[in-house]
Amino acid sequence: MSKIKEVSDKIKEEVCQVFKGNTDVVDMVLACLFAGGHVLLEDVPGTGKTVLAKSVAKASGLEFSRIQCTPDLMPSDVTGSSVWLPDSKSFEFRAGPVMASIVLVDELNRATPRTQSALLECMAENQVSVDGIRHELEKPFFVLATENPVESEGTFPLPEAQKDRFMMTLSMGYPSEAEEAEIITAQRSLIHPVENVKAVVAKNDILEAMKEAVEIHVDDAVLSYLISLTKASRNDLRIAAGVSPRGSIALYKACQAYAAVNGRTFVTPEDVKLLALPVFRKRIILTSDSLLKGYTADKIINELIETVPVPAFRAHV
C-alpha cells in the first residue's frame, strides 16, 4: 500500500466516526490537503462543515487554529502583529491564528474585504508580511474555509482573486435518513463527538504523502482532455471569464492526489470529470445575460463535462 493511501485511509476512518454524510467529500478534502491546496466548504448552516474541518484537523495530528470571521475582524487579528516591549525597547512579533498547519476560517464571507485579502498572501505564498518582515508559514499549510451561500445580510462577497486561491469548492448536501439518525443519536452525550477524534497520523506522514502525490502519473491523453475542458470554458459564450491556467494547474494537482487517495498510481479521465466541477465552480464568471436566463456555474460546467469528448485511455501500471 502506498504511503498516501495508508495515511488517507487512517484519517478517513477516524473522521467518518463523527462526520456522517457524503464520504466522497472527505476524499476530496484529503486530496486538497495532499496536493497543497485549500478548500472552501459552501453549504447551508448545520450540514457539518465545521465538524468535517475540525475532525480532519484533529485526525491529521497537525497544529490547528480557528478564525471566527465577523465584520469587525481586523487583518492583524488573522496574521498577527508587532508588539512594543518597553523593557527591551524593541518590537516583538506575536503570531496570529493563521500561523498553524490547518486553519479553519469559519464564515469567511462575514469578514470585510480588507480582512479577506489578508489571507491572499498566506494562501498563495505560504507567508505572512507584517511591518515589512516576512514570516514563513508551517508546511503543510491548509486552509479550510466555510461559507453560507444562502444568507446575505451582514456578509461580503468573496473577490474573484480570493475564490481562485481555493483548489476546490465543496458542498456536502443533506444526509440520508439513516445518516441523520446517526447524527442525532450521537449528540445524546454532553461531549460533542468531534472531541473524541484522535490523531492517527503525524506531521511527517502528511509531508511524505504530499511528496508522493506529485509523482502520480498523468497520461498525455488525460492532460489533453483536462486542457480541452478549460479551453471549452473560455470559448463558451455564456461565460464572461473562463478558467485560468491556475485553474488548470489546480485540477491537475487535485487529480493526482485524488488518484493516490484512491490507491492508484495514475490519473484517469473519470478523475478529471469528477473533480472539474468542484475545481471550476468558483473560477468562471457568467455573463449578465446568462444570469438573467437562469444559468448557474454548476449547470454550465456540467454541460461542458458532458460535451467535451472523453479520450481513449489505457491504464498506466
From TrEMBL:
Q: Which InterPro entries match?
A: ATPase_AAA-3, CbbQ/NirQ/NorQ/GpvN, ChlI/MoxR_AAA_lid, P-loop_NTPase
Q: Which GO terms describe its molecular function?
A: ATP binding; ATP hydrolysis activity
Which ranges carry the ChlI/MoxR AAA lid domain?
232-303
According to the entry, every stretch annotated as the ATPase AAA-3 domain falls at: 38-168
Instruction: Specify the domain of life of the species encoding this protein.
Output: Bacteria
Q: Name one Pfam family in it.
A: AAA_lid_2
Q: What is this protein identified as?
A: MoxR-like ATPase
Species of origin: Treponema bryantii
